[in-house]
Protein backbone atom coordinates (compact mmCIF):
# COMPACT_ATOMS: atom_id res chain seq x y z
CA UNK A 1 0.00 0.00 0.00
CA UNK A 2 1.70 3.30 0.95
CA UNK A 3 0.83 6.60 -0.67
CA UNK A 4 3.04 8.62 -2.98
CA UNK A 5 2.85 12.22 -4.10
CA UNK A 6 4.95 14.15 -6.61
CA UNK A 7 5.00 17.74 -7.84
CA UNK A 8 6.82 19.68 -10.56
CA UNK A 9 6.31 23.43 -10.54
CA UNK A 10 6.96 26.80 -8.99
CA UNK A 11 4.82 26.60 -5.86
CA UNK A 12 6.17 26.06 -2.35
CA UNK A 13 6.64 22.31 -2.29
CA UNK A 14 6.65 21.30 1.38
CA UNK A 15 3.07 22.48 1.98
CA UNK A 16 1.83 20.86 -1.22
CA UNK A 17 3.48 17.53 -0.48
CA UNK A 18 2.31 17.39 3.14
CA UNK A 19 -1.25 18.29 2.12
CA UNK A 20 -1.13 15.50 -0.48
CA UNK A 21 0.22 12.99 2.03
CA UNK A 22 -2.52 13.83 4.52
CA UNK A 23 -5.05 12.84 1.89
CA UNK A 24 -3.26 9.52 1.44
CA UNK A 25 -2.61 8.71 5.08
CA UNK A 26 -5.35 6.07 4.98
CA UNK A 27 -2.97 4.01 2.79
CA UNK A 28 -0.40 3.64 5.56
CA UNK A 29 0.81 5.73 8.43
CA UNK A 30 3.80 4.17 10.14
CA UNK A 31 6.42 6.55 8.72
CA UNK A 32 6.70 9.31 6.15
CA UNK A 33 9.16 11.43 4.23
CA UNK A 34 9.74 13.94 1.48
CA UNK A 35 12.50 15.08 -0.87
CA UNK A 36 12.78 18.28 -2.87
CA UNK A 37 15.09 19.74 -5.49
CA UNK A 38 15.25 23.33 -6.62
CA UNK A 39 16.47 24.47 -10.02
CA UNK A 40 18.50 27.36 -8.67
CA UNK A 41 20.40 25.07 -6.27
CA UNK A 42 19.81 21.42 -7.18
CA UNK A 43 20.66 19.70 -3.91
CA UNK A 44 18.45 16.95 -2.52
CA UNK A 45 16.68 18.06 0.66
CA UNK A 46 15.49 14.96 2.48
CA UNK A 47 13.26 14.66 5.57
CA UNK A 48 12.15 11.31 6.97
CA UNK A 49 10.54 10.22 10.21
CA UNK A 50 8.68 7.36 11.81
CA UNK A 51 5.09 7.99 12.88
CA UNK A 52 2.21 9.71 11.15
CA UNK A 53 2.18 12.69 8.76
CA UNK A 54 1.92 15.07 11.72
CA UNK A 55 5.40 13.95 12.75
CA UNK A 56 6.74 14.84 9.29
CA UNK A 57 4.91 18.15 9.43
CA UNK A 58 6.60 18.95 12.76
CA UNK A 59 9.98 17.81 11.53
CA UNK A 60 9.80 20.08 8.48
CA UNK A 61 8.13 23.08 10.13
CA UNK A 62 11.08 25.39 9.44
CA UNK A 63 11.69 24.10 5.93
CA UNK A 64 10.33 25.64 2.75
CA UNK A 65 11.12 24.82 -0.84
CA UNK A 66 10.14 27.76 -3.00
CA UNK A 67 10.91 28.36 -6.63
CA UNK A 68 10.95 26.14 -9.66
CA UNK A 69 11.72 22.54 -8.86
CA UNK A 70 10.37 19.13 -7.90
CA UNK A 71 9.24 17.28 -4.81
CA UNK A 72 8.29 13.71 -3.99
CA UNK A 73 6.77 12.36 -0.78
CA UNK A 74 5.64 9.09 0.75
CA UNK A 75 3.51 7.73 3.59
CA UNK A 76 4.44 4.16 4.44
CA UNK A 77 2.86 0.89 5.48
CA UNK A 78 5.87 -1.30 6.20
CA UNK A 79 6.33 -4.45 4.15
CA UNK A 80 10.12 -4.94 4.23
CA UNK A 81 11.87 -3.58 7.30
CA UNK A 82 10.41 -2.08 10.45
CA UNK A 83 8.68 1.29 10.50
CA UNK A 84 11.56 3.71 11.16
CA UNK A 85 13.08 6.92 9.80
CA UNK A 86 15.75 4.90 7.98
CA UNK A 87 13.24 2.66 6.27
CA UNK A 88 10.95 5.58 5.44
CA UNK A 89 10.98 6.83 1.84
CA UNK A 90 12.39 8.68 -0.10
CA UNK A 91 15.38 6.39 -0.51
CA UNK A 92 18.45 8.14 -1.74
CA UNK A 93 21.51 6.93 -3.56
CA UNK A 94 24.08 9.33 -5.06
CA UNK A 95 22.06 12.04 -6.84
CA UNK A 96 18.76 10.17 -6.96
CA UNK A 97 15.80 9.89 -4.62
CA UNK A 98 12.83 7.59 -5.09
CA UNK A 99 9.43 6.88 -3.59
CA UNK A 100 7.76 3.55 -4.23
CA UNK A 101 4.38 1.99 -3.56
CA UNK A 102 4.25 -1.78 -4.02
CA UNK A 103 6.64 -4.68 -3.52
CA UNK A 104 9.78 -5.53 -5.49
CA UNK A 105 9.72 -9.31 -5.26
CA UNK A 106 13.21 -9.95 -6.66
CA UNK A 107 14.94 -7.23 -4.62
CA UNK A 108 17.10 -9.66 -2.63
CA UNK A 109 18.80 -11.06 -5.76
CA UNK A 110 19.30 -7.60 -7.24
CA UNK A 111 20.63 -6.27 -3.94
CA UNK A 112 23.15 -9.08 -3.60
CA UNK A 113 24.50 -8.39 -7.11
CA UNK A 114 24.92 -4.67 -6.37
CA UNK A 115 26.48 -5.34 -2.96
CA UNK A 116 29.10 -7.44 -4.70
CA UNK A 117 29.87 -4.39 -6.85
CA UNK A 118 30.36 -2.26 -3.73
CA UNK A 119 26.94 -0.68 -3.21
CA UNK A 120 26.18 -0.02 0.46
CA UNK A 121 22.51 -0.03 1.43
CA UNK A 122 21.10 2.05 4.26
CA UNK A 123 17.68 0.46 4.78
CA UNK A 124 16.07 -2.96 5.06
CA UNK A 125 13.51 -2.10 2.40
CA UNK A 126 12.95 -3.65 -1.00
CA UNK A 127 12.46 -0.15 -2.46
CA UNK A 128 15.97 1.22 -1.93
CA UNK A 129 17.21 -1.07 -4.71
CA UNK A 130 15.52 1.21 -7.29
CA UNK A 131 17.75 4.23 -6.55
CA UNK A 132 20.87 2.01 -6.62
CA UNK A 133 19.89 0.28 -9.86
CA UNK A 134 19.22 3.60 -11.57
CA UNK A 135 22.56 5.07 -10.55
CA UNK A 136 24.30 1.84 -11.61
CA UNK A 137 22.61 2.07 -15.02
CA UNK A 138 23.73 5.69 -15.41
CA UNK A 139 27.27 4.70 -14.52
CA UNK A 140 27.20 1.84 -17.01
CA UNK A 141 26.71 4.41 -19.78
CA UNK A 142 30.29 5.64 -19.11
CA UNK A 143 29.31 9.24 -19.71
CA UNK A 144 31.99 11.93 -19.88
CA UNK A 145 29.56 14.68 -18.90
CA UNK A 146 26.19 15.04 -17.16
CA UNK A 147 23.56 12.71 -18.65
CA UNK A 148 20.96 14.07 -21.01
CA UNK A 149 17.31 13.49 -20.21
CA UNK A 150 17.17 10.83 -22.93
CA UNK A 151 20.16 9.00 -21.44
CA UNK A 152 18.61 9.17 -17.98
CA UNK A 153 15.30 7.88 -19.29
CA UNK A 154 17.11 4.99 -20.91
CA UNK A 155 18.79 4.18 -17.58
CA UNK A 156 15.43 4.41 -15.86
CA UNK A 157 13.81 2.07 -18.40
CA UNK A 158 16.62 -0.45 -17.91
CA UNK A 159 16.13 -0.17 -14.15
CA UNK A 160 12.42 -0.83 -14.37
CA UNK A 161 12.97 -3.75 -16.75
CA UNK A 162 14.83 -5.57 -13.97
CA UNK A 163 12.04 -5.25 -11.40
CA UNK A 164 9.55 -8.00 -10.65
CA UNK A 165 6.49 -7.27 -8.56
CA UNK A 166 4.16 -4.33 -8.17
CA UNK A 167 5.19 -0.71 -8.25
CA UNK A 168 4.30 2.92 -8.65
CA UNK A 169 7.63 4.74 -8.64
CA UNK A 170 8.67 8.39 -8.75
CA UNK A 171 12.35 9.25 -9.15
CA UNK A 172 14.10 12.61 -9.03
CA UNK A 173 17.74 13.31 -9.82
CA UNK A 174 19.95 16.32 -9.18
CA UNK A 175 20.76 16.66 -12.91
CA UNK A 176 17.06 17.19 -13.71
CA UNK A 177 15.53 19.57 -11.15
CA UNK A 178 12.39 20.11 -13.22
CA UNK A 179 11.73 16.45 -14.07
CA UNK A 180 10.10 13.43 -12.44
CA UNK A 181 10.70 9.94 -13.82
CA UNK A 182 7.74 7.61 -13.24
CA UNK A 183 6.81 3.95 -13.70
CA UNK A 184 3.65 2.00 -12.92
CA UNK A 185 2.87 -1.72 -12.68
CA UNK A 186 -0.03 -3.13 -10.61
CA UNK A 187 0.01 -0.20 -8.12
CA UNK A 188 -2.04 2.90 -8.83
CA UNK A 189 -0.42 6.07 -10.19
CA UNK A 190 -2.28 9.16 -11.36
CA UNK A 191 -0.98 12.24 -13.14
CA UNK A 192 -2.74 15.59 -13.27
CA UNK A 193 -1.94 18.86 -14.98
CA UNK A 194 -2.95 22.20 -13.48
CA UNK A 195 -1.84 25.78 -13.91
CA UNK A 196 0.27 25.40 -10.74
CA UNK A 197 2.25 22.51 -12.26
CA UNK A 198 2.30 18.75 -12.74
CA UNK A 199 0.99 16.49 -9.97
CA UNK A 200 1.48 12.79 -9.29
CA UNK A 201 -0.43 10.76 -6.67
CA UNK A 202 -1.64 7.33 -5.66
CA UNK A 203 -5.26 8.49 -5.45
CA UNK A 204 -7.44 11.36 -6.70
CA UNK A 205 -7.94 12.86 -3.22
CA UNK A 206 -4.32 14.10 -3.34
CA UNK A 207 -4.86 15.91 -6.63
CA UNK A 208 -7.06 18.68 -5.28
CA UNK A 209 -5.38 21.43 -7.34
CA UNK A 210 -6.32 19.82 -10.64
CA UNK A 211 -9.60 19.11 -12.36
CA UNK A 212 -8.47 16.47 -14.88
CA UNK A 213 -6.25 13.45 -14.33
CA UNK A 214 -5.00 10.34 -16.06
CA UNK A 215 -4.89 6.93 -14.40
CA UNK A 216 -1.75 5.34 -15.83
CA UNK A 217 -1.94 1.88 -17.35
CA UNK A 218 0.31 -0.96 -16.23
CA UNK A 219 3.61 -0.80 -18.07
CA UNK A 220 3.71 3.02 -18.18
CA UNK A 221 7.23 4.45 -17.95
CA UNK A 222 8.31 7.99 -18.71
CA UNK A 223 9.61 11.35 -17.62
CA UNK A 224 7.73 14.63 -17.33
CA UNK A 225 9.47 17.97 -17.48
CA UNK A 226 8.02 21.35 -16.57
CA UNK A 227 9.61 22.73 -19.72
CA UNK A 228 8.41 20.10 -22.17
CA UNK A 229 4.76 20.76 -22.92
CA UNK A 230 2.49 17.73 -23.07
CA UNK A 231 -1.19 16.94 -23.06
CA UNK A 232 -2.84 14.61 -20.56
CA UNK A 233 -4.25 12.73 -23.55
CA UNK A 234 -0.67 11.72 -24.41
CA UNK A 235 -0.55 9.69 -21.18
CA UNK A 236 -3.97 8.02 -21.27
CA UNK A 237 -7.66 8.79 -21.07
CA UNK A 238 -8.30 11.87 -18.92
CA UNK A 239 -11.11 11.83 -16.38
CA UNK A 240 -12.40 14.32 -13.83
CA UNK A 241 -10.65 14.49 -10.45
CA UNK A 242 -13.43 13.65 -8.03
CA UNK A 243 -12.79 15.68 -4.91
CA UNK A 244 -13.29 13.16 -2.13
CA UNK A 245 -11.30 15.20 0.36
CA UNK A 246 -10.52 13.15 3.46
CA UNK A 247 -9.85 16.23 5.54
CA UNK A 248 -13.37 17.25 6.53
CA UNK A 249 -14.05 17.49 10.24
CA UNK A 250 -15.53 15.16 12.80
CA UNK A 251 -18.83 17.02 12.99
CA UNK A 252 -18.85 16.84 16.77
CA UNK A 253 -17.96 13.15 17.08
CA UNK A 254 -14.87 12.02 18.95
CA UNK A 255 -13.71 9.71 16.20
CA UNK A 256 -14.36 9.15 12.51
CA UNK A 257 -15.44 5.60 13.26
CA UNK A 258 -18.17 6.74 15.62
CA UNK A 259 -19.30 9.35 13.09
CA UNK A 260 -19.43 6.70 10.38
CA UNK A 261 -21.40 4.28 12.58
CA UNK A 262 -23.86 7.03 13.42
CA UNK A 263 -24.41 7.96 9.78
CA UNK A 264 -25.07 4.41 8.60
CA UNK A 265 -28.79 5.01 8.29
CA UNK A 266 -27.98 7.19 5.26
CA UNK A 267 -27.53 4.03 3.19
CA UNK A 268 -31.30 4.12 3.15
CA UNK A 269 -30.89 5.99 -0.14
CA UNK A 270 -30.03 2.63 -1.70
CA UNK A 271 -33.66 1.66 -1.27
CA UNK A 272 -34.38 4.24 -3.96
CA UNK A 273 -33.46 1.38 -6.28
CA UNK A 274 -36.83 -0.20 -5.48
CA UNK A 275 -39.54 1.17 -7.74
CA UNK A 276 -43.03 -0.26 -8.19
CA UNK A 277 -42.20 -3.47 -6.32
CA UNK A 278 -39.17 -4.18 -8.48
CA UNK A 279 -35.48 -3.59 -7.87
CA UNK A 280 -33.83 -1.48 -10.55
CA UNK A 281 -30.08 -1.92 -10.69
CA UNK A 282 -27.85 0.15 -12.95
CA UNK A 283 -26.68 -2.84 -14.98
CA UNK A 284 -26.53 -3.50 -18.72
CA UNK A 285 -29.67 -5.12 -20.12
CA UNK A 286 -29.64 -8.89 -19.70
CA UNK A 287 -26.57 -8.81 -17.43
CA UNK A 288 -28.25 -10.99 -14.78
CA UNK A 289 -30.19 -13.22 -17.17
CA UNK A 290 -29.79 -17.02 -17.16
CA UNK A 291 -26.84 -17.16 -14.79
CA UNK A 292 -25.67 -20.64 -13.85
CA UNK A 293 -23.91 -19.63 -10.63
CA UNK A 294 -22.13 -16.78 -8.89
CA UNK A 295 -18.61 -16.53 -7.52
CA UNK A 296 -17.81 -13.77 -5.07
CA UNK A 297 -14.30 -12.55 -4.22
CA UNK A 298 -13.35 -10.05 -1.53
CA UNK A 299 -11.10 -9.46 1.48
CA UNK A 300 -11.68 -8.67 5.16
CA UNK A 301 -15.02 -7.13 6.00
CA UNK A 302 -16.03 -7.08 2.34
CA UNK A 303 -15.57 -10.87 2.35
CA UNK A 304 -17.94 -11.10 5.32
CA UNK A 305 -20.47 -9.00 3.40
CA UNK A 306 -20.03 -11.46 0.52
CA UNK A 307 -20.84 -14.37 2.85
CA UNK A 308 -24.03 -12.64 3.99
CA UNK A 309 -24.85 -12.12 0.30
CA UNK A 310 -24.43 -15.85 -0.31
CA UNK A 311 -27.13 -16.71 2.25
CA UNK A 312 -29.48 -14.08 0.81
CA UNK A 313 -28.96 -14.94 -2.87
CA UNK A 314 -29.16 -18.69 -2.33
CA UNK A 315 -32.35 -18.25 -0.33
CA UNK A 316 -34.11 -15.67 -2.49
CA UNK A 317 -32.84 -16.55 -5.96
CA UNK A 318 -32.06 -20.26 -5.46
CA UNK A 319 -28.76 -19.71 -7.23
CA UNK A 320 -25.55 -21.36 -6.08
CA UNK A 321 -23.01 -18.86 -4.74
CA UNK A 322 -19.39 -19.54 -3.92
CA UNK A 323 -17.57 -16.94 -1.81
CA UNK A 324 -13.77 -16.97 -1.84
CA UNK A 325 -11.10 -14.90 -0.19
CA UNK A 326 -9.62 -13.00 -3.13
CA UNK A 327 -6.09 -13.90 -2.03
CA UNK A 328 -6.93 -17.62 -2.35
CA UNK A 329 -8.99 -17.36 -5.52
CA UNK A 330 -6.21 -15.66 -7.45
CA UNK A 331 -3.85 -18.62 -7.03
CA UNK A 332 -6.41 -21.43 -7.16
CA UNK A 333 -6.89 -23.86 -10.06
CA UNK A 334 -10.54 -24.32 -10.82
CA UNK A 335 -13.01 -24.91 -13.60
CA UNK A 336 -15.41 -22.14 -14.51
CA UNK A 337 -18.97 -22.63 -15.71
CA UNK A 338 -20.81 -21.24 -18.68
CA UNK A 339 -22.88 -18.20 -17.63
CA UNK A 340 -21.02 -17.86 -14.33
CA UNK A 341 -20.80 -14.31 -12.97
CA UNK A 342 -17.88 -13.14 -10.84
CA UNK A 343 -18.61 -10.44 -8.25
CA UNK A 344 -15.75 -8.50 -6.68
CA UNK A 345 -16.71 -6.63 -3.51
CA UNK A 346 -14.52 -3.81 -2.26
CA UNK A 347 -15.02 -0.57 -0.41
CA UNK A 348 -11.94 1.02 -1.94
CA UNK A 349 -12.01 -0.70 -5.29
CA UNK A 350 -8.22 -0.93 -4.98
CA UNK A 351 -7.44 -3.97 -2.76
CA UNK A 352 -4.63 -5.75 -4.60
CA UNK A 353 -5.89 -9.30 -4.07
CA UNK A 354 -9.45 -8.52 -5.12
CA UNK A 355 -8.18 -6.62 -8.14
CA UNK A 356 -6.01 -9.53 -9.27
CA UNK A 357 -8.85 -12.01 -8.68
CA UNK A 358 -11.06 -9.82 -10.86
CA UNK A 359 -8.41 -9.71 -13.59
CA UNK A 360 -8.04 -13.49 -13.43
CA UNK A 361 -11.80 -14.02 -13.76
CA UNK A 362 -11.89 -11.69 -16.75
CA UNK A 363 -9.01 -13.51 -18.40
CA UNK A 364 -10.95 -16.76 -17.93
CA UNK A 365 -13.82 -15.26 -19.87
CA UNK A 366 -16.22 -14.66 -16.97
CA UNK A 367 -18.57 -11.72 -16.89
CA UNK A 368 -17.60 -9.54 -13.93
CA UNK A 369 -19.41 -7.18 -11.59
CA UNK A 370 -17.71 -4.84 -9.12
CA UNK A 371 -19.60 -3.85 -5.97
CA UNK A 372 -17.64 -0.79 -4.92
CA UNK A 373 -17.97 2.26 -2.73
CA UNK A 374 -15.45 4.32 -4.64
CA UNK A 375 -16.46 5.83 -7.91
CA UNK A 376 -13.65 5.94 -10.43
CA UNK A 377 -11.77 3.09 -8.73
CA UNK A 378 -9.50 0.68 -10.59
CA UNK A 379 -11.95 -2.16 -9.99
CA UNK A 380 -14.91 -0.34 -11.44
CA UNK A 381 -12.83 0.67 -14.45
CA UNK A 382 -11.93 -2.99 -14.98
CA UNK A 383 -15.18 -4.86 -14.33
CA UNK A 384 -17.83 -5.29 -17.02
CA UNK A 385 -20.33 -3.54 -14.74
CA UNK A 386 -20.33 -1.78 -11.38
CA UNK A 387 -22.86 -1.30 -8.63
CA UNK A 388 -21.88 1.60 -6.42
CA UNK A 389 -22.71 1.19 -2.75
CA UNK A 390 -23.09 4.94 -2.10
CA UNK A 391 -22.02 4.83 1.56
CA UNK A 392 -20.13 8.10 1.15
CA UNK A 393 -16.42 8.40 1.77
CA UNK A 394 -15.34 6.03 4.56
CA UNK A 395 -12.20 7.29 6.30
CA UNK A 396 -11.88 5.27 9.48
CA UNK A 397 -9.71 2.22 8.80
CA UNK A 398 -12.32 -0.10 10.29
CA UNK A 399 -15.07 -0.58 7.77
CA UNK A 400 -18.58 0.10 9.13
CA UNK A 401 -20.98 2.01 6.91
CA UNK A 402 -19.37 0.52 3.80
CA UNK A 403 -20.15 -2.99 5.03
CA UNK A 404 -23.77 -2.05 5.71
CA UNK A 405 -24.05 -0.64 2.19
CA UNK A 406 -22.44 -3.74 0.65
CA UNK A 407 -24.87 -6.07 2.43
CA UNK A 408 -27.80 -3.92 1.42
CA UNK A 409 -26.65 -3.90 -2.21
CA UNK A 410 -26.25 -7.69 -2.17
CA UNK A 411 -29.73 -8.03 -0.69
CA UNK A 412 -31.15 -5.91 -3.52
CA UNK A 413 -29.19 -7.99 -6.01
CA UNK A 414 -30.66 -11.16 -4.46
CA UNK A 415 -34.16 -9.76 -4.90
CA UNK A 416 -33.51 -8.85 -8.51
CA UNK A 417 -32.02 -12.27 -9.22
CA UNK A 418 -34.99 -13.91 -7.54
CA UNK A 419 -37.75 -11.67 -8.89
CA UNK A 420 -39.16 -14.34 -11.22
CA UNK A 421 -39.61 -16.90 -8.48
CA UNK A 422 -40.69 -14.63 -5.61
CA UNK A 423 -44.43 -14.16 -5.13
CA UNK A 424 -45.81 -10.64 -4.81
CA UNK A 425 -46.35 -11.25 -1.11
CA UNK A 426 -42.85 -12.61 -0.56
CA UNK A 427 -41.41 -9.57 -2.31
CA UNK A 428 -43.58 -7.25 -0.23
CA UNK A 429 -42.30 -8.94 2.96
CA UNK A 430 -38.72 -8.48 1.81
CA UNK A 431 -39.26 -4.78 1.11
CA UNK A 432 -40.79 -4.37 4.57
CA UNK A 433 -37.79 -6.16 6.08
CA UNK A 434 -35.44 -3.82 4.17
CA UNK A 435 -37.16 -0.75 5.61
CA UNK A 436 -37.26 -2.30 9.09
CA UNK A 437 -33.52 -2.94 8.78
CA UNK A 438 -32.84 0.73 8.17
CA UNK A 439 -34.89 1.56 11.27
CA UNK A 440 -32.99 -1.12 13.23
CA UNK A 441 -29.67 0.53 12.37
CA UNK A 442 -30.98 3.73 13.93
CA UNK A 443 -32.66 2.04 16.92
CA UNK A 444 -29.48 0.19 17.87
CA UNK A 445 -27.65 3.48 18.49
CA UNK A 446 -29.82 3.95 21.60
CA UNK A 447 -27.95 0.99 23.10
CA UNK A 448 -24.64 2.85 22.95
CA UNK A 449 -24.57 3.99 26.63
CA UNK A 450 -25.33 0.42 27.79
CA UNK A 451 -22.63 -0.98 25.51
CA UNK A 452 -20.15 1.47 26.98
CA UNK A 453 -20.90 0.33 30.57
CA UNK A 454 -20.84 -3.32 29.61
CA UNK A 455 -17.54 -2.96 27.73
CA UNK A 456 -15.93 -1.57 30.89
CA UNK A 457 -17.25 -4.54 32.89
CA UNK A 458 -15.92 -7.00 30.32
CA UNK A 459 -12.51 -5.34 30.21
CA UNK A 460 -12.35 -5.63 33.99
CA UNK A 461 -12.90 -9.39 33.70
CA UNK A 462 -9.97 -9.50 31.27
CA UNK A 463 -11.06 -12.61 29.31
CA UNK A 464 -8.28 -14.70 27.76
CA UNK A 465 -10.15 -14.78 24.46
CA UNK A 466 -13.33 -13.72 22.71
CA UNK A 467 -15.46 -16.16 20.69
CA UNK A 468 -18.20 -14.77 18.47
CA UNK A 469 -20.87 -17.26 17.40
CA UNK A 470 -23.91 -17.27 15.15
CA UNK A 471 -25.80 -19.29 12.55
CA UNK A 472 -26.96 -18.46 9.03
CA UNK A 473 -26.23 -14.81 8.20
CA UNK A 474 -25.26 -14.40 11.83
CA UNK A 475 -22.23 -16.61 11.20
CA UNK A 476 -20.52 -14.04 8.92
CA UNK A 477 -21.71 -11.44 11.41
CA UNK A 478 -19.79 -13.35 14.10
CA UNK A 479 -16.72 -13.25 11.83
CA UNK A 480 -17.17 -9.53 11.33
CA UNK A 481 -17.65 -8.86 15.07
CA UNK A 482 -14.43 -10.73 15.84
CA UNK A 483 -12.50 -8.88 13.11
CA UNK A 484 -13.68 -5.50 14.41
CA UNK A 485 -12.68 -6.33 17.98
CA UNK A 486 -9.28 -7.69 16.92
CA UNK A 487 -8.35 -4.77 14.68
CA UNK A 488 -9.47 -2.08 17.12
CA UNK A 489 -8.94 -3.43 20.64
CA UNK A 490 -5.95 -5.70 19.91
CA UNK A 491 -7.41 -8.75 21.70
CA UNK A 492 -7.64 -12.28 20.40
CA UNK A 493 -11.08 -12.82 18.92
CA UNK A 494 -12.46 -15.53 16.66
CA UNK A 495 -15.78 -15.99 14.88
CA UNK A 496 -17.49 -19.39 14.62
CA UNK A 497 -20.59 -20.99 13.24
CA UNK A 498 -22.29 -21.81 16.58
CA UNK A 499 -22.55 -25.52 16.00
CA UNK A 500 -18.85 -25.81 15.20
CA UNK A 501 -17.94 -25.12 18.84
CA UNK A 502 -18.23 -28.72 19.85
CA UNK A 503 -15.93 -29.79 17.00
CA UNK A 504 -12.87 -28.32 18.67
CA UNK A 505 -13.02 -24.73 19.96
CA UNK A 506 -15.03 -25.73 23.04
CA UNK A 507 -11.82 -27.27 24.39
CA UNK A 508 -10.88 -23.70 25.32
CA UNK A 509 -14.05 -23.06 27.32
CA UNK A 510 -13.55 -22.17 30.96
CA UNK A 511 -14.32 -19.23 33.23
CA UNK A 512 -11.86 -16.97 31.41
CA UNK A 513 -13.27 -17.38 27.90
CA UNK A 514 -15.96 -14.94 26.79
CA UNK A 515 -18.36 -16.06 24.07
CA UNK A 516 -20.43 -13.44 22.33
CA UNK A 517 -23.59 -15.23 21.25
CA UNK A 518 -25.80 -13.80 18.52
CA UNK A 519 -29.30 -15.01 19.34
CA UNK A 520 -31.91 -13.63 16.93
CA UNK A 521 -35.52 -14.46 17.66
CA UNK A 522 -36.33 -15.22 14.03
CA UNK A 523 -33.56 -17.62 13.05
CA UNK A 524 -32.75 -20.90 14.82
CA UNK A 525 -33.16 -19.39 18.26
CA UNK A 526 -33.39 -22.64 20.25
CA UNK A 527 -30.53 -24.26 18.32
CA UNK A 528 -28.32 -21.31 19.21
CA UNK A 529 -29.45 -21.44 22.81
CA UNK A 530 -28.36 -25.08 23.08
CA UNK A 531 -24.86 -24.06 21.93
CA UNK A 532 -24.80 -21.36 24.62
CA UNK A 533 -25.84 -23.95 27.25
CA UNK A 534 -22.94 -26.17 26.19
CA UNK A 535 -20.51 -23.34 26.88
CA UNK A 536 -22.18 -22.38 30.16
CA UNK A 537 -21.95 -26.00 31.31
CA UNK A 538 -18.18 -25.56 31.07
CA UNK A 539 -18.17 -22.30 33.06
CA UNK A 540 -17.71 -20.14 29.92
CA UNK A 541 -18.66 -16.46 30.19
CA UNK A 542 -21.53 -15.52 27.88
CA UNK A 543 -22.27 -12.13 26.39
CA UNK A 544 -25.68 -12.58 24.81
CA UNK A 545 -26.97 -10.23 22.13
CA UNK A 546 -30.64 -10.95 21.69
CA UNK A 547 -34.11 -9.39 21.91
CA UNK A 548 -35.02 -12.27 24.26
CA UNK A 549 -33.74 -12.18 27.85
CA UNK A 550 -31.18 -14.99 28.21
CA UNK A 551 -31.31 -16.38 31.75
CA UNK A 552 -27.84 -17.75 32.10
CA UNK A 553 -25.93 -15.03 30.26
CA UNK A 554 -23.13 -13.29 32.16
CA UNK A 555 -23.75 -10.10 30.16
CA UNK A 556 -26.53 -9.15 27.82
CA UNK A 557 -27.43 -6.42 25.40
CA UNK A 558 -31.13 -6.67 24.70
CA UNK A 559 -31.81 -5.55 21.16
CA UNK A 560 -35.25 -4.47 19.95
CA UNK A 561 -37.51 -7.22 18.62
CA UNK A 562 -38.35 -7.21 14.89
CA UNK A 563 -40.56 -9.57 12.92
CA UNK A 564 -37.76 -10.63 10.50
CA UNK A 565 -34.20 -11.84 11.07
CA UNK A 566 -32.58 -9.22 8.79
CA UNK A 567 -33.46 -6.15 10.93
CA UNK A 568 -32.22 -8.24 13.88
CA UNK A 569 -29.01 -8.79 11.90
CA UNK A 570 -28.45 -5.06 11.27
CA UNK A 571 -29.28 -4.18 14.86
CA UNK A 572 -26.66 -6.69 16.10
CA UNK A 573 -24.13 -5.47 13.54
CA UNK A 574 -24.33 -1.98 15.08
CA UNK A 575 -24.01 -3.43 18.60
CA UNK A 576 -20.83 -5.27 17.59
CA UNK A 577 -19.36 -2.15 15.95
CA UNK A 578 -20.05 -0.09 19.07
CA UNK A 579 -18.65 -2.83 21.28
CA UNK A 580 -15.34 -2.84 19.37
CA UNK A 581 -15.26 0.96 19.38
CA UNK A 582 -15.82 1.16 23.14
CA UNK A 583 -13.32 -1.59 23.96
CA UNK A 584 -10.66 0.26 21.97
CA UNK A 585 -11.49 3.63 23.46
CA UNK A 586 -11.45 2.27 27.00
CA UNK A 587 -7.96 0.98 26.28
CA UNK A 588 -6.95 4.43 25.03
CA UNK A 589 -6.22 3.21 21.50
CA UNK A 590 -6.33 5.11 18.21
CA UNK A 591 -9.66 3.95 16.85
CA UNK A 592 -9.38 5.54 13.42
CA UNK A 593 -5.83 4.46 12.70
CA UNK A 594 -5.27 1.13 14.44
CA UNK A 595 -1.68 -0.06 14.55
CA UNK A 596 -0.28 -2.04 11.61
CA UNK A 597 -3.30 -1.41 9.40
CA UNK A 598 -4.16 0.75 6.42
CA UNK A 599 -7.45 1.62 4.81
CA UNK A 600 -6.53 0.54 1.32
CA UNK A 601 -4.48 -2.65 1.02
CA UNK A 602 -2.73 -2.34 -2.31
CA UNK A 603 -0.08 -5.01 -1.76
CA UNK A 604 -0.68 -8.74 -1.73
O1 LIG B 1 -11.40 -1.78 0.33
P1 LIG B 1 -11.74 -3.22 0.54
O2 LIG B 1 -13.18 -3.40 0.87
O3 LIG B 1 -11.33 -4.09 -0.59
O4 LIG B 1 -10.94 -3.65 1.82
C1 LIG B 1 -10.98 -4.97 2.29
C2 LIG B 1 -10.38 -5.08 3.67
O5 LIG B 1 -9.05 -4.64 3.67
C3 LIG B 1 -11.17 -4.29 4.71
O6 LIG B 1 -12.51 -4.65 4.74
C4 LIG B 1 -10.54 -4.50 6.11
O7 LIG B 1 -10.74 -5.82 6.52
C5 LIG B 1 -11.12 -3.51 7.12
N1 LIG B 1 -10.06 -2.97 7.91
C6 LIG B 1 -12.10 -4.12 8.05
O8 LIG B 1 -12.58 -3.23 9.00
From TrEMBL:
It comes from the Bacteria. Keywords: Aminotransferase, Glutamine amidotransferase, Repeat, Transferase. GO terms for molecular function: carbohydrate derivative binding; glutamine-fructose-6-phosphate transaminase (isomerizing) activity. The keyword Transferase applies. Signal peptide: none annotated. InterPro entries: GATase_2_dom (IPR017932), GFAT (IPR005855), GFAT_N (IPR047084), GlmS/AgaS_SIS (IPR035466), GlmS/FrlB_SIS (IPR035490), Ntn_hydrolases_N (IPR029055), SIS_dom (IPR001347), SIS_dom_sf (IPR046348). It is an enzyme of class 2 (transferase). The keyword Transferase applies. One of its GO terms (biological process) is fructose 6-phosphate metabolic process. Residues 2-227 form the Glutamine amidotransferase type-2 domain. Residues 283-424, 455-594 form the SIS domain. CDD domains: GFAT (cd00714), SIS_GlmS_GlmD_1 (cd05008), SIS_GlmS_GlmD_2 (cd05009). Its EC number is 2.6.1.16. Pfam families: GATase_6, SIS. One of its GO terms (cellular component) is cytosol. It catalyses: D-fructose 6-phosphate + L-glutamine = D-glucosamine 6-phosphate + L-glutamate. This is Glutamine--fructose-6-phosphate aminotransferase [isomerizing].
